[in-house]
Amino acid sequence: MTTMTETSARFREFKMPDVGEGLTEAEILKWFVQPGDTVTDGQVVCEVETAKAAVELPIPFDGVVHELRFPEGTTVDVGQVIIAIDVAPGSGDAPVPAAAAPAQEPAAEPEAEAEPKGRTPVLVGYGVAESSTKRRPRKGASAAPEAAAVAAAVQAELNGHAAPAAPAAPAAAVPAQGGRPLAKPPVRKLAKDLGIDLATVVPTGKDGIITREDVHAAAAPAAAPAAAPAPAPAAVAPAVAEAPAAVSDSARETRIPVKGVRKAIAQAMVGSAFTAPHVTEFITVDVTRTMKLVAELKEDKDMAGVRVNPLLVIAKALLVAIKRNPEVNAAWDEANQEIVQKHYVNLGIAAATPRGLIVPNIKDAHDKTLPQLAAALGELVTTARDGKTSPAAMAGGTVTITNVGVFGVDTGTPILNSGESAILAVGAIKLQPWVHKGKVKPRQVTTLALSFDHRLVDGELGSKVLADVAAILEQPKRLITWA
Q1: CB-based burial of residue 103 (10 Å sphere; 0-12 exposed, 13-18 middle, 19+ buried)?
Q2: Which helix (H) or strand (E) holds 357?
Q3: What share of the chain is helix, strand, coil (3-state, %, to 5)?
Q4: What is the pLDDT of residues 34-76, one digit of tens each?
Q5: Is residue 439 classed exposed, middle or buried when 0-12, 13-18 and 19+ CB atoms within 10 A define those classes?
Q6: For 178-224, where are the alpha helices, taking DSSP H only?
Q7: Among 114, 125, 136, 109, which Cα is nearest to 159's?
Q8: What is the mean pLDDT of the chain?
Q9: Which of 45, 54, 246, 329 qualifies as a FRET site for 118, CA 20 to 30 Å off?
């Protein structure tokens, strides 16, 4: 789909693209540019999170950033304009392009009187502060009640975004250029955590920007036992009094919006749990020989430059087990009432990330040698932890491994990924007493759990797959004899 529009010869607008497979919205996680910054074709301007992954968006033309239409943390529909670019800067005045944002965020109208005498430094999410310029009233606009304006200002402060202009006069400590005190988002958060009203802080930073040191200096006298709390501006105090729940409850609970990757995970897990009839089987196995093999592979020059760990051998063991029992690698087609047999294995690896659990997969894992599989595993994990996994990397999985052992957990009952037939959970590998060659000896032991879709996989087939994986881990030479 087209992701940019041309509103005039000077301004171009970039729309939120569909960066996945039919996605309808994405959340703006971070802006990498600010109004006034110069950008070039292909430069990444922001990072967004869809229901599948975090994705960086490049701008498709050169110019100067004129306007960021949405602040960080906003969920934007695909097709909405998110940034406007001045592609002919310095060519004289031109009308501001009409915003494609929702109705509650109308675009600024052309200025009617004197030009600004200077620009106030731009901070992320706040745009350019007004100078001596005056704006004519908007058509059809009516003065909002004072209480509504005050409430909007307080909500904006809590959200960390620019507050709409309030009819009340600014506090005396506000910088001379007027408007809201200038401070970067981390400094605003620090002030909020310390209970400091930025309107009472004397700025020492360049161009009247409040610094962290300014906030700490303002907090120092407040920390004395006899000091009274800093008075709130008259325009803010009534609104805080009217909404005490938002303040008093914050120390007792935290509410996290369910969106993006976490929302998709929740929907997929509920859909899987209540659609596919799950069966889970368990087996405990002596993996001492596998651990010895891992140690030897780490010293093998053919494995130089790749990460070798037990998960690598377990993944290879599962691939061999699937080759011996190909019927397990299938999917249920509800619409056509068919079982779809897969003649390839896209091996999913569950990865815990700051944005939640994601399951990227190694395409055609069944065709890879051990060094190739190790390299693919390493790249997959690194990309996932960096939050750069693409939607394509998470599509088309057939079977998954989830390693709960890294958290010290013995085992679990994993839920199938939607559209897949089986998932193998690997527990912690621990030194335990074990009967070996007729004697009780300390051995490296782990527990495996295999969940499968009982519509596709009956008890016999599921048991064979799990038993084969266990047999390979107990005697790794079967990787050769069974391959």
Answers
A1: exposed
A2: strand 356-358
A3: 30, 25, 45
A4: 999 999 988 999 988 876 667 888 998 899 999 999 999 888 8
A5: exposed
A6: 185-194, 212-222
A7: 125
A8: 77
A9: 45
- How is residue 363 written in tokens? 């395409």
Question: If you search the block for the tokens 């004072």, which residue do you land on?
Answer: 146
| pLDDT tens per residue across span 269-305 | 666 666 778 899 999 999 999 999 999 999 999 999 9
Name residue, tokens 């060659």: 437
Strand order in the sheet with 25-31: 54-58, 44-49, 25-31, 75-77
Q: Is the dihedral of CA 192, 197, 199, 203 positive or negative?
A: negative
- Contacts of residue 212, defined as CB under 8 A and 6 or more positions apart, other chains included, come to 186, 187, 190
Paired residues of 14 in beta bridges: 4, 83
Element (H, E) at 237: helix 237-242
Residues in the chain: 483
Tokens of 458: 């009956």
Q: What does the alpha-carbon distance between residue 428 and residue 410 come to, in Å, rounded to a whole number?
A: 5
Distance CA(144)–CA(469), nearest Å, equals 69
Task: Provide the token pair at 174.
Answer: 């506000």
Q: Where are the beta strands (DSSP E) in 41-167?
A: 44-49, 54-58, 63-68, 75-77, 81-86
Lowest mean pLDDT segment, chosen from 27-41, 74-88, 262-276, 412-426: 262-276
Q: How far apart are CA 122 and CA 297, in angstroms?
A: 54
- Cα(397)–Cα(168) distance, integer angstroms: 58
Pairwise CA distance, residues 461 & 330, whole Å: 12
Provide the β-strand partners of residue 210: 183
> What values do phi and psi take at 297, rounded to 5?
-65, -35
Across 14-48, b (16+ Cβ under 10 Å) vs e yields: bbbbbbbeebebbbbbebebbbeeebeeeeebbbb
Please state the separation of Cα 294 from the chain's center in Å: 33
Using only C-alpha atoms, what is the Rg of the chain?
Answer: 29
Record the tokens describing residue 168, joined without a space: 């009340």
Q: What is the pLDDT of residue 388?
A: 81
Phi and psi at 400, nearest 5°, equal -130, 150
Which residues make Cβ contacts (< 8 Å) with residue 217, sequence separation at least 6? 201
Catalytic residues: 454
Integer Cα distance of 103 and 113 in angstroms: 26
* Residue type, position 364, single letter: D
